[in-house]
Design brief:
By secondary structure, the protein is mostly helical. Among the domains are: about 80 residues, Serine Threonine Protein Phosphatase 5, Tetratricopeptide repeat; about 100 residues. About 60% of the residues lie in helices and about 0% in strands. The protein contains 17 helices and no strands. Helix 8 packs antiparallel against helix 9 and helix 11 crosses helix 12. The protein is globular, with a radius of gyration of 23 Å. The relative contact order is 0.11.
């Protein structure tokens, strides 16, 4: 897990709720490519970091972390008291059914009457290009009107656009004000994005303690990226007191939501014995899940697991398969390369066929 430098936050892969396989980190500061497991100490302890691990923890993830603010979908902005939808509900019901042009027309009628949520819905339709050509400038205008009418989702969405410079001029100070407005109404993702600003010192004064408070609120509300980043703060002691147990606890919660980077990092903790003992049997499951989601570091580690028979039956063909896949992402590992080179011609062919089948399935999953 990469740590959070004082000047900027190293986020998890794409900061939409579900990180894409191609954007997650490829290595883990809890791991090395040639040492997949060490003897387990009793209970929970903080792993002694190597020089390489220390360097990895202070390195920012690829790209500009502040370009990856969380953006959440509009859930159910209107209460539905009775079994029959009201006129106010009709636009949202049409939206949920995928009838976007109908939703746009109905929301337009409601917006003309001053309905704040209808403004937000129209903004989202143009923001995402749902049934219409995508137009971020138009979306920003509708979000602005919705925010001025008091809709929390409109304020939040406009904040994301200002933070990213989409449809409006990039303005992190203005984004922070909007996130703060939404955060005061207990908007979890607004709290998360506000934490990023306090961690980066851009748009808000650098304040890791306040950042940690916002992260904890979002983490408690179930935002996986917040759980992962809060684990990082506890692991490093940035904005909070260092606490190995809390770091492990929040990392596990992010992993249990299926966040690939968290699954990988928590699997490494389990393999090394630096996590909650009751979770030890789940280590390979976490690692397998992260590998299948495209985390190259997890793929390479899984190759070691199968090569050495660590908590699984030894399987050199499976080890070869995962090594070939990890090598596609330029993960260097001379030990595994030597193992693959020593496979019989028949076994090497089986490993290559299995690796290609995984690549083909992964490609299909990405376009679905």
């Amino acid at each position: 897990m990469k740590a959070l430098p004082a000047a900027r936050l190293a986020l998890a892969a794409a900061l939409l709720i579900h990180a894409t396989a191609g954007s997650v980190a490829q290595t883990s500061s809890w791991s090395s490519t040639t040492d997949p497991a060490v003897p387990k100490p009793p209970g929970l302890a903080k792993p002694p970091p190597s020089a390489a691990a220390k360097a990895a923890r202070t390195a920012p993830r690829s790209g500009d972390p502040l370009s990856r603010f969380q953006k959440g979908p509009i859930g159910a902005p209107l209460e539905r008291a009775g079994p029959k939808p009201t006129a106010e509900d009709a636009a949202f019901l049409a939206f949920e059914r995928g009838e976007y042009l109908t939703a746009l027309t109905l929301a337009g009628d409601r917006a003309a009457l001053g309905d704040a949520g209808a403004h937000t819905l129209i903004g989202r339709i143009y923001d995402e290009g749902l049934g219409v050509d995508r137009n971020e400038v138009t979306a920003a205008r509708w979000y602005l009107q919705g925010a001025e009418l008091g809709d929390v989702e409109a304020a939040f969405s406009l904040g994301v656009m200002r933070a990213q410079g989409r449809g409006v001029q990039k303005d992190l100070v203005g984004a922070g004000e909007l996130f703060e407005r939404a955060a005061r109404q207990r908007h979890a993702l607004a709290n998360y994005n506000l934490a990023l600003l306090f961690l980066s010192g851009v748009g808000k004064p650098e304040n890791p303690t306040r950042a940690a408070l916002h992260l904890e609120f979002a983490a408690q509300k179930g935002v996986a990226a917040a759980q992962y980043d809060l684990a990082t703060l506890y692991q490093k002691g940035h904005g909070v007191k260092p606490d190995a147990f809390e770091a492990s606890n929040w990392l596990r919660r992010a992993a249990d939501q299926g966040m690939p980077e968290a699954e990988y990092d928590y699997a490494i903790l389990l393999l090394k014995g630096y996590a909650i003992n009751a979770d030890m049997p789940r280590a390979i499951g976490y690692l397998q899940s992260a590998a299948n989601k495209g985390v190259a570091g997890a793929q390479n580690r899984l190759a070691h697991v199968y090569a050495q028979g660590l908590r699984v039956a030894p399987d050199l063909i499976e080890a070869g398969k995962w090594r070939l896949i990890a090598r596609d992402a330029r993960i260097a590992d001379e030990v595994l390369d030597a193992l693959v080179a020593k496979l019989s011609r028949a076994d090497r062919e089986k490993a290559e066929i299995a690796a290609q089948a995984w690549r083909d399935q992964n490609a299909l999953d990405l376009i679905r």
